[in-house]
Every structure is written in C-alpha cells, then in structure tokens.
Design the sequence.
C-alpha cells in the first residue's frame, strides 16, 4: 500500500484516500520501493529503474541488435537536431502561500436584511461564498482545514482553506471535508462555515440572521444533509435553508429550460436531463470520473514514466499540469497513433521544468591557478624535506645498528664459543650465520639509500642465489643440513618459477608486438582484406554478445528451454540415485575424467561472474575493433557503431520520455524535466472511455445515448433535449471537449437529430451565480417558501426534512 | 515560556481562527458525537435502512391480504370475496411500482458498465499508443517491439503497477 498511498500525493489532503484505492495493489512483492520520501512527496521505485531510463545510448539491447545490418540514415537529421533551438520550458514552482483572502468590511450594508441570502457553493474543489446580491462569490477556497498543535507555544491553530497551505506543518495536518463529493468530515465543515462567516464580517448576536442557499451533490445521502441542517440551524441559528444541485443552478443561470446537463466537476460527472426547468432525477446518472481522478491518473502515469525523478512533485503542480496542458482530442485514435512521430512531435511535446539547483563548477582565474600550483609545489617541497630527514634518521639508526652488530661479530672472535653463543642468543640470533646475514642486509640497505640520496641509479644486479647443499647427498648431511637442504630446494623452485614467468611475459609482449606489426603490414598492403577481416571479427563478436544476451533473458523466464535444461542439470547433480549408466554395470563414476565435465557447474550458476567478466572483455575488444575500423575504414562511420545502433532518433521510447532532442543525463536541467506528450490527450480521454483508467462504467457518450434513446419515452421531450446539451464543471474547461462531445453524439444519435452542445459561460462559477440569481429573484416569493426549510419547520418536522423543488434533490 | 516569533508562527497567528470571536454561533451548540462518517459508512447505513423498509412493506402487504389475520366470523360474512381480491391487487401493484421505479439514491445513480466493450480500444500500457500486441507473460499491451524490449526489462512488480493503472492487475487476497 505504500506506493499506492504515496502515488496519491493527496493522501493527507483527502479523507479516506486509502479507501478510494483499488484494494490490494502489489505490496509485498514490490521489493524495490523506496519509501524514504516525505509524506507528501513522490515515492518511486528506485533500485531498479526500467532499463530505458539509464540513457538513450543503452536502449533495449537484444532488439536493437537486430537492426545491425541496416545502413544508418539519420546522419543528416542528427546534425539538424544539433542546432535545434532549445525547447519552450513550462516551469512549475513549489507550492506557495499566496496570502489570505480579503476580509469584507461592508457588513453594515447587509445587516438586518434577511432577504439577502448567504450563498454557498459547497463543492469538493472549492467552497465559494458570497451574498446573493454579489455578482461573483467573495470567497473561494479549497474545502480543507488544518488543526494542529504547536507544542512550543502550547497552542492549537485552526487554519482554513488556502491558509492551511501557509507552511509545511499546517499543510500536512490539513483535512478535507469531502469524501469524493459528499461531506463526511463535519468538524472541517464547521470550521469552513466559521471561517466563511467571519470573512463575510457577520457580527450579529444570536445567529447569522440571513437565509442560506447551499449547493449539494446529486442525490446527497440524507445523513449528510441531515447533519448539515443540524449544523446550520442549531449552531448558526439560520432562519431558513435551501438546498439545490450545483449543476442545475448553473443551468438555471445559463437560461436553460429543456436539455441535458452534463456536469463534469472535480469529483464526479453527472448527467441530468431537464424538462420544463425541472431536473428529471430518476434519469440522472453519475460517472465516477472528474478532475480529481484525472489528476490522480496523471500522477500514476508520470510516476511510472519517470520512476527515478529527482525532484519532489506536489499535488498542486500536477493539478496545474492537467489544467494547462491537457486537451480533448477530436479523433483520439488517429491523433494518438501519430502523437510520437519525431517530425511533428515538437509542436505537441510540452517540456515541464521542475525547479532544481545547478551544481556550478567554479571557474578559477589564471592568477588563482598559479597561486594554487605554487602552494602545491611548496607543500610538496616541505614533504620532500621531511621525508629526506626521516630517511636520514633511519639511515643513522641503521648505521648504528650495523656498527653494533659488527662489534659483536668482532667480539665473538675473541670470546669462547659458549659465551659467544650466549651473546648471540641475547641479541636474538640463532647462530653466527644469521648475524652475518643480518649485517649483510643492513649493509645493502644502507648502500641503497645512500645511492638514492645521491641520485645514483644503481643497477639492480640480480644475484643468482646458490644452492650448495642440493648437490650433496642426504647421507653426508646431519639433521640440520637436511633441513637446510629442504629449504634451499623450495627457494630454488621459487626462483625458477619467477624466472619462467618473466620469460613468458616477455614472450607474450613480443608476440603482441609482432602481431601488431603484422596487422599493420597487412593493412598497408591489403586494406580491403584487412577491413573485411576486421568486420567479420566484429560481426562475430556482436553475434556472440547477442546470443549471450538472449540466453540471459531466456534464463529469466522460468518456462524457457534454457531454464528447464538448467533445472534438469541441477536435479541430476543433486540426485543421490546412481545414473542409468552405472546401473548397467559400468560402475566407474567417470565424472571429472574429462575436464569439460566441470563446465556443468559453470552452466548452472544463476549469475555467472565469469561470463560477466567475459562479456566485459568482449565489449572492450569490440570497442577496440570499432576504433580501428573508424580510423581506417572509410565506410565505417560513427553511426554504424554498436552504441549508435540504438539511435534515439528512431526510438519511440525516447520520443515518449525525452521528446525531440537528445538527452544528456548529466545535465541537471534536463534531468529535472518531464515531457508531457501522449498524456495530454490520454488523461482527459478517460471520460469517453473510463476503462482506460480502470473505471468499470460506460463513457459519457454511451450514457447519453442509453439515457436518451432507451430510457426517454417521450419523443417530443427527447427532441427538446437534443437541442440543448449543456456542459458545466471544471472538466468543461478542457479545450475541445464541447466539439468532441458534439461529434461523438452526432455519430450515435439518430440521423438529423437537432443536436446542439454548449458550454456554461463560466463552468466554474456559474453554479454559485445561479444560486445567487435564484435567491435574489425568489426570496420572499412563493417559490422560496416551496423550496426553503425554515427554522420552525426544522424544529417541527425533524432534521431530515427536505422540500423537493425544481433545482434540488428528491427525497429518497 | 516566551513565544517564539519565527515568521511562520506570526503568519499562523494572523490566520488562526480558533480564538476569534464568533458572535453568530450559538453558545449552547455541541456537535453530536461521532458525526463524521465516511461515504462508505453512510451508504452501508442507507442500504440497511432500505432493506429494513422493504421487509416492513412486504410484511404489511402480507397482513393486508388477510391470509394470516384471524378474521372474526361475523366480519367475514359482511365482506364479499371480491373486495378482498381488489385489495390484494392494489397492494401488489403498489409494491411492483415501488420496485420498478426506485427513487434515485447516491448508490443507484452510478452509470452501468459499458455494453460495448468492443468500443474500448487497446492502448499500449506504457506509451498510450494503439496497441496491437499483448505480452503473454505480463499481460501488458504494447505498441511495438521496442516497447516490448522495455517490458522484458521491467523490474519486478513494475508490470503490475502498469496493470493497476487500468485496473487489470491481479489482486491476491
């Protein structure tokens, strides 16, 4: 669930986000999920990015090798692109707090006028609040509230709406009032209402003193409405409350009487037929797709597209991406098919630049460089001096040691043998020979360091050691002698081995030199033949590498022949049963008699280190061959190189991920770029084809046809509805939505149906404006009495009492 | 403890509405306990209430038929058999009407699944392009062999994440 949760980015901002997730996303099996990011950050698989993300030069290997013999043709276009102007960058910034909403100071104008209603468009995207006499809502804010306790101050803060974005502390504590499109968190709702009334400047005692006109979602569950009524009547002592459906208010504002309201908003899409200004509620249909789901969809797509994206991506940024760059394709399949074509991708590809910090390498001046060099030299000199001093001291010590030992040796000549051996023992020597050896060593080392100090290159004469005891037969030696003889034997063997090795190395060097000479000679004499030979060598290597690669992929598939063979071999080796051969009487276990038998262990190793090493060797050899060919073969150009095989210009994946320009992994700016291309039409398209995003419902075109053709029985009404298909809600802001819906509906509705499609004047604000308009014209009229519930009625008839009216929900 | 005056604290103090005077709010208002319910809880309750009301209405219909009600002999004499039949019919009609035209509720206005699955295209799970192939191993749809190469190289579990985007992943419970 980690990834699932984090993918949402909104987990903290939305109540019950976890429950909205398709249950049981791959959890434990996803071993490569790094959950180290913070709560509202993007969590992505890090340890094993898809191979195509490494770099364009390392594009999928086994397949790209197929095109080996194809002549490269992209040289020209490659040069073109090298001089391409840099792309237009669309920057996204980190979420910022834009200051608080204005406080109204004109409440005096409204005080005591209870024919002026407080109009609240209570949507899941924005809460919009204003007086019914206003032309636009005074307040519009996200319906969230953040209550958090500052432990240092010992004080609880309550921040509502956009104020909750003030800093990261309050942002992470923010809770949303809505679960999809229904209010579920009334603590948040209460704070939102408090905040709204405070912002309006209401200061009357004993209640707000104005009727409330509030929108609610289609078929709002009665529990939600009941609790809201309790809140409005009991906490705020509202004189009357009227509820209506947002999209119907919007339709009302746009002067519609008969038509189909298609309201695609943040959380859902509703389709409500309207006849004689009354919503036909039992035909109303909901599609569980809206702007929020579109953002979520884009989030998932981008998290998969750029798994290792270096910057943090915030929810508001994604919302901006959807709003600014997505549009509805007129012919989705046709447009999608050609979307990633290199030639024209430039105009469709949007490069989104996320903020990043460039690691700047300091440029040093000449003077500074000189200074540094001087300093380095100085310190080097000092070090040298120190080393010389140390060497001198060591030399002195050695000298002293030498004289001391020499003195002992001298002394030994005059002493008795017993005394002498005691002295030797005290000094840690076994016998005189050892002492002599030591003296010799010291002399040698002193001489060497002296020479070094004086700068004399001493010829290291290899002293041929003598092994005198070897020729003496064992019988003539005492026990000690035999021991020494054995030691000498070993020494001799060592010495000889060293010599042999040296000779071999020399020979190898000579062989390579000769080979190179021969190669060069051949090249000089017969260039064509040489090239052909080298090329065939190269092709052979490439084929071998390809084979290796294939085997590797085959082994990763449990059911492949290679895997099966491997398992068979393992089982065979592990079995205690005698093999069939042995049962037949051939008792000899001949395993190992042939050296090739051991190769079986190489074959069954899952990760073959040796093979990997070999692979590397072959790669270097290939590279060598290619450099030679590049140098001498006029037909062999940069483009025929093995790496260029996976030329990014012909790569669909490159176009998808990196657009029309080469990608430089080292470039910080480019690493922090996202390319929006197919997503631009893929995301909004879901409303026509919900199965694309895993929503098991029909798309809006199918819903409309089903509703109008099968469920509507009145021919005349149907005709009228055709004439006015009305789009409202945030989704209607997508470019091309209206046209697309019209084309799609024309295709499926009966021939010459008088179809008209239009969009609300302001798809976002018209619900509020409609509610304000309605209250302005109807408060005090009979229609108001028919629609609004007064406080007295609430007290008499209970909290779930509702009056049905043209623009509102019906009792259920 | 001296209040710290970091910039964010100052902003928060100016935004905080906890201690602001709210004269319009009833002093005696106390929110009901446990009034916050998520949509799922709300809908479950609605369903339960509906089921209960259907059972109740059925019970009432049965009572109306008079089959189970002990009717005094004298009353039975006065009632014609025809009247009982008429009563029964009307009750039945009422029931069938209420079943045939259920009131729209949050739960039942959901759009039905598509009846034209053929309409839904097959799109490449990675690039979104029209896809002609399906990888038998991962069940991912893909547009061309280059994308297939990428699919073969996907890390463990990544294919499932791609499938999850269109709700086609296998869920083990």
Sequence:
């Amino acid at each position: 669930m980690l990834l699932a949760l984090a993918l949402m980015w909104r987990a903290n901002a939305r109540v019950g986000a976890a429950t909205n997730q398709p249950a049981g996303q791959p959890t434990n099996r996803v071993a490569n999920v790094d959950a180290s990011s913070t709560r509202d950050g993007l969590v992505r698989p890090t340890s094993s990015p898809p191979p195509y993300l490494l770099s364009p030069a390392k594009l999928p290997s086994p397949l790209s090798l197929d095109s080996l013999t194809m002549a490269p043709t992209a040289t020209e276009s490659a040069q073109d692109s090298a001089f391409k102007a840099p792309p237009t960058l669309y920057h996204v910034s980190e979420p910022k707090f834009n200051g608080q909403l204005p406080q109204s100071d004109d409440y005096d104008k409204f005080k005591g006028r209870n024919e002026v209603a407080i109009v609240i468009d209570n949507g899941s995207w924005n809460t919009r609040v204003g007086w019914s006499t206003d032309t636009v809502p005074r307040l519009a804010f996200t319906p969230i509230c953040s209550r958090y306790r500052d432990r240092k101050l010992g004080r609880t803060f309550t921040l509502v709406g956009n104020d909750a974005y003030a800093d990261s502390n309050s942002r992470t504590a923010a809770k949303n009032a809505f679960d999809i499109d229904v209010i579920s968190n009334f603590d948040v709702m209460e704070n939102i209402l408090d905040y709204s009334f405070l912002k309006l400047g209401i200061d009357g005692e004993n209640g707000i003193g104005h009727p409330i006109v509030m929108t609610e979602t289609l078929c709002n569950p009665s529990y939600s409405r009941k609790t809201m009524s309790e809140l409005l009547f009991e906490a705020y002592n509202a004189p009357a409350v009227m509820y209506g459906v947002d999209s119907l208010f919007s339709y009302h504002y746009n002067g519609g009487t008969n038509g189909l309201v298609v309201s695609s908003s943040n959380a859902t899409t509703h389709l409500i037929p309207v006849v004689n200004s009354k919503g036909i509620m039992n035909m109303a249909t909901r599609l569980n797709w809206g702007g929020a789901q579109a953002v979520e969809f884009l989030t998932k797509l981008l998290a998969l597209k750029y798994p290792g994206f270096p910057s943090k991506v915030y929810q508001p940024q994604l919302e901006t991406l959807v709003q600014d760059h997505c549009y509805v394709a007129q012919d989705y399949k046709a447009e999608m098919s050609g979307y990633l074509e290199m030639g024209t991708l430039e105009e469709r590809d949007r490069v989104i630049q996320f903020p990043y910090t460039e690691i700047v390498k300091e440029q040093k001046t000449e003077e500074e460089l000189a200074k540094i060099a001087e300093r380095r030299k100085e310190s080097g000199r000092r070090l040298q001096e120190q080393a010389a001093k140390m060497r001198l001291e060591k030399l002195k010590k050695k000298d002293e040691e030498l004289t001391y030992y020499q003195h002992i040796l001298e002394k030994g000549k005059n002493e008795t043998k017993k005394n002498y051996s005691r002295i030797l023992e005290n000094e840690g020597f076994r016998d005189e020979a050892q002492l002599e050896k030591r003296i010799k060593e010291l002399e040698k080392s002193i001489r060497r360091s002296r020479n070094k100090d004086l700068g004399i290159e001493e010829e290291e004469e290899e002293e041929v050691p003598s092994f005198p005891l070897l020729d003496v037969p064992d019988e003539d030696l005492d026990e000690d002698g035999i021991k020494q003889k054995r030691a000498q034997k070993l020494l001799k063997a060592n010495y000889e081995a060293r010599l042999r090795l040296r000779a071999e190395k020399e020979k190898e060097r000579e062989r390579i030199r000769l080979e190179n000479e021969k190669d060069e000679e051949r090249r000089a004499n017969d260039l064509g033949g040489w090239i052909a030979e080298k090329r065939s060598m190269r092709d052979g290597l490439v084929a071998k590498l390809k084979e290796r690669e294939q085997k590797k992929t085959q082994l990763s598939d449990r059911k492949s022949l290679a895997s099966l063979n491997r398992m068979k071999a393992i089982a065979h080796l592990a079995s205690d049963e005698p093999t069939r051969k042995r049962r037949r009487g051939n008792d000899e276990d001949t395993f190992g008699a042939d050296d090739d038998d051991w190769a079986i262990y190489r074959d069954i190793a899952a990760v073959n280190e040796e093979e990997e090493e070999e692979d590397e060797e072959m790669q270097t050899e290939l590279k060598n061959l290619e450099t030679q060919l590049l140098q001498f073969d006029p037909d062999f150009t940069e483009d025929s190189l093995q790496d260029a095989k996976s030329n990014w210009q012909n790569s669909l994946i490159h176009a998808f991920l990196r657009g029309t320009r080469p990608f430089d992994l080292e470039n910080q700016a480019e690493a922090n770029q996202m390319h929006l291309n197919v997503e631009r039409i893929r995301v909004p398209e879901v409303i026509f084809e919900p199965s694309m995003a895993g929503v098991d419902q029909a798309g809006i075109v199918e819903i409309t046809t089903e509703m109008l053709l099968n469920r509507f029985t009145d021919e005349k009404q149907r005709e009228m509805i055709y004439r006015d298909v009305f789009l409202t809600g945030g989704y209607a802001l997508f470019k091309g939505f209206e046209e697309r819906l019209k084309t799609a509906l024309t295709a499926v509705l009966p021939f010459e149906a008088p179809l008209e499609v239009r969009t609300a004047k302001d798809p976002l604000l018209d619900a509020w404006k409609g509610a304000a308009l309605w209250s302005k014209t109807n408060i005090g009229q009979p229609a108001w009495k028919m629609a609004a519930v007064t406080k007295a009625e609430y007290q008499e008839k209970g909290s779930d009492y509702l009056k049905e009216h043209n623009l509102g929900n019906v009792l259920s | 403890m001296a209040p710290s005056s970091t910039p964010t604290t100052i902003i928060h103090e100016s935004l905080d509405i906890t201690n602001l005077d709210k004269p319009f709010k009833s002093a005696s208002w106390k929110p009901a306990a446990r009034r916050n319910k998520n949509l799922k809880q709300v809908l479950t309750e609605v369903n339960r209430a509906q089921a209960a009301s259907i059972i109740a209405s059925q019970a009432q219909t049965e009572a109306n038929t008079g089959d189970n009600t002990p009717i005094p002999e004298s009353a039975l004499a006065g009632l014609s058999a025809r009247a009982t039949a008429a009563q029964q019919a009307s009750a039945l009609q009422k029931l069938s009407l209420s079943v045939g035209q259920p009131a729209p509720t949050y739960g039942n206005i959901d759009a039905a699944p598509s009846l034209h699955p053929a309409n839904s295209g097959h799109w490449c799970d990675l690039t979104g392009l029209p896809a002609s192939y399906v990888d038998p191993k991962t069940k991912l749809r893909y547009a061309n062999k280059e994308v297939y190469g990428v699919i073969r190289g996907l890390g463990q579990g990544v294919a499932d994440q791609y499938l999850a985007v269109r709700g086609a992943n296998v869920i083990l419970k």
Notes: Strands of chain B lie at 133-134, 141-142. DSSP finds six helices and two strands in chain B. Confidence is low (pLDDT under 50) at residues 74-84, 95-99 of chain B. Residues 148 and 154 of chain B are 10 Å apart (CA to CA).
